[in-house]
Amino acid sequence: MIGFLDAATLAQAKLHTKRLLLLSTIIVSGLLFATLFAAVIISGGITKSINNYTQAALDGKYLVKSTPVIPQSVSGPSRINPSNDLIQELTALQTDYIASQKSLAARLKLPFDPSTIPPILEQDSLASKTLPEASRVMINLDSPVFKQYLQLLQQNYVKVAKNKLSDLKNIGVKYGATNYFQNEYASPTFQTMTYLKDGNEDLSWLSQTEPASSDASVYGYTTSSVRNSTYTFIDSSLVQRFILPVNKKRQEQSSAIPVVITTKEAIDLFGSQLHIQAEPTTVSQRVAWLKDLQNKINGFTYSTCYRNSSDSAAINQAIQTLSAIEANKNSSSYILPSLIYNLPATACGGLAVKSDTRTTAEKDAAAQQIATNLALGTYQTPVHQLLQFQIVGVIPVAQTTDTAANVQSFITSLFNTQYGVGAMIPIEMYNSLPAAEQYKNILQNDTTMLHNTDELHQAGIDETIISFASLNKARAFINNEGCPPSQDDCAKPFILEPYGTNYLLIDSLQNTINATLRVAFFVIATIATIIIWFMISRIISDSRHETAIFRAMGARRHDIAAIYTVYTFGVACRILLFAISIGVLLAYSLQIALGGEATDYAQSSYGLTSQGVNFSFINLESPLLLWLGLSIPLISYIAAFPALIRNVRRNPINDLRDE
Amino acid sequence: MLDRNTHPKEIDAFLALFNGDSTSAIQAIQEYSDQTKRRSYDFVKKGSDTIISISTLSKTYKIGKQQTDVLDNISLNINRGEFIAITGASGSGKSTLLQLIGGLDHPTSGSVVVNGVDINHLNDAERSAFRNQTIGFIFQFFYLQPFLKIAKNIEVPGMFARIPRRERRVRAQKLIEQVKLQDQQSHLPKQLSGGQIQRTAIARALLNNPKIILADEPTGNLDSTNSQLIIDLLKEVRKDSGATIVLVTHNPDIAAQADREIRLVDGAIV
Description:
The structure holds 2 protein chains of 2 kinds.
Chain A: H1 4-15, H2 19-58, E1 62-68, H3 72-75, H4 84-107, E2 121-123, E3 137-139, H5 144-160, H6 165-172, E4 179-181, E5 184-186, E6 193-195, H7 213-218, E7 231-234, H8 236-239, H9 248-252, E8 257-262, H10 263-274, H11 283-297, E9 301-307, H12 309-327, E10 339-342, E11 352-356, H13 360-376, E12 384-395, H14 407-414, E13 423-426, H15 427-431, H16 436-445, H17 455-458, E14 464-468, H18 471-481, E15 482-483, E16 494-499, H19 503-542, H20 544-552, H21 557-606, H22 623-649, H23 652-657
Parallel strand pairs in A: 7-13, 8-12, 15-16
Antiparallel strand pairs in A: 1-14, 1-16, 2-3, 4-14, 5-7, 6-9, 9-12, 10-11
Helix pairs in contact in A: 1-21, 2-19, 2-21, 2-22, 10-11, 11-21, 19-22, 21-22
Chain B: H1 8-18, H2 22-46, E1 50-63, E2 66-79, E3 83-88, H3 94-101, E4 109-114, E5 117-118, H4 124-134, E6 135-138, H5 150-160, H6 165-178, H7 194-206, E7 212-216, H8 224-241, E8 244-248, H9 252-256, E9 260-265, E10 268-269
Parallel strand pairs in B: 3-8, 3-9, 6-7, 7-8
Antiparallel strand pairs in B: 1-2, 1-4, 4-5, 9-10
Helix pairs in contact in B: 1-2, 5-6, 5-7, 6-7, 7-8
């Protein structure tokens, strides 16, 4: 057979013929493939960059948040609209409880007043009037009877539960889980711990049963963790990237409780005070804005006031007394109470006795009542505590809209930090503070403060963060062992979702891009095959005479095949070179146009402004590029094959005779 | 029927018959016959044996239901080193005969034995090898590779013969000198005149030292001066290499310079 170099010489000569047709084919096919090359390079660049940010953000860990699926009946019935059966059950328990307390008082030879026992059910003024009178009630969640009821439910559930931490670990080990973190949540009931806006305490809150709608909207009580004092105690390693360097303010006041808050809360609560501008809409300004925000808020302190229910009740009582005195100051018939308190003179201060005209007997009776309640376990010593928090980090949370079906929302969700809305206390930093003892005492002694001090938590049935070393393992664990948060009727023991970064969405994006590229590849490959087939058919058809001459000179069929094989390869190489050049050019154009902006956006979203991880739209390492490159010669050969076979099988005399 | 290929003695005979002078006509035919015999005789003396033996060769083309007999029962021997001119009117079967001799086509019946080998019994690859090693084709329209330089064009048959590159170049260089194209060897065909192109084509046909050169109207596209140069060149080639030349032509002057003229009329030798 003809040597390769000779075949190449003749093929090269052929490439000079039909130049316009060849050029058109190269340009059209090349542009089609160039779009694929560009798409592969760019999508590879995007996913690689996002993965780089994910890796840098969590030090290569892929975190999964596991939430045990707990039946509604166990986690506690709804406060409002209890069923008739539940009302009967709780009423019976309340009766038993009163009886037991009465019996205890008798045994201790103490006077017993049933009215000191908090009711298990309270009137619900907002209940539907269509309900029977007896059903228009709501459960008093602070009632000791309800707590007992809940405790019993949970104790029974724990015995059969399959969603304990030990169960989770048994499953996690199959997927190579490397670590488990259990966050603790301080989520006080309303009024227990209040944010002191501008350092002032609004005592009117204490007389409310729930936040006023104006407060919810103006201060964001329902959405702001700082405002409603809901804190997450989290392993420091999980939020390390958001923690700012220690500055002068933090050195000066190192005893405050460290807290990491979201940029949204920083603006909402402290924006005007610290002269922080609203989040800019343009990405280019976002990094500078974030740095300014970080600089201004690092070390900033704010206070909250903890008052337990007894303390709150005393202040409420004092407010009412003072109001009554004020209302009756001109009334000669009004008899002043024997014990009058002044309201706290300072924020989160204690009540000060204004006047105490009680007789000794009255004082003794009051002291006796306290002693009795203490003995019965129904007395709560009033406690108030001013707590100072210091902001040590901010989590960039992009402003999101409810309608996620647009590109902006999608990109925003890609960079979502997935910590949810919350203020977080890094556990290790917190534990090292001597002053944190105050808060620890509160949390330990007030069961309304830590929601996970219950039976379930003690049994390890609680939210857990599981760490995996690879995305594939994390994804497999999520897909196989749990339900997504959106699933209502989850039959599995855990609800599982990504945590820390939205790596699954990124993974899903990559899969979607790959699927789209596959379809695009087949479409483009088909079109390119037709174009190349047309071109090569024309070239071969128009070269029949030449082929016949070669045959007359003694060329064998496979010599002719070799020449056209090399020729086709030459065409394919030209298409390939053109496609790669244009594809790379497109990718670099995008990088030049948007690379800086994307870097700013990603760095500010992931809180990695100081780490210098650049966002690149270019990834030339994808194996898809190799396959795509190989596919062009393959497609060219497929396209050339029919014409080549026809040409080779043809008797040369037919073409000589055409002369 | 008289045409431009008709031999002068044939014309004389025709004119004598037309004028009713049968004696002169017979004399002219006799002279024509003697001249042809003499040329054959001269060749027989020069050559030694038969290189091409054609026996009862027929070729029929079928186009749909229509059947065309292009060659009809032709028998012919051509001796080694002989210079044969095949003449005849268009459609008389000249080129077909040439293609059958060159193994480019299969006869309907009969045989073509070249150098002792019946080429009808060769398969496609053997035929290719036969053409490559034994035959040198020269065409009226040259068919050079337009984007290969002259020297490289001459090498093409050697590529198919897998002659080593260096040897191929040496051979091509000798042929370039032989056809006096040293100054044009780096040119592309489009930069050459018709005569130079045909000389290139002749050099290309000679690269593999063929025993037989089949030239299909090689001067058909050339003026008389260049035509004669080409014929002279072919004669020189025969003299140098002893190759047998079978040349199809319409030109009686060229045919007259051959050792023997084979005239075809309607597919038969007359």
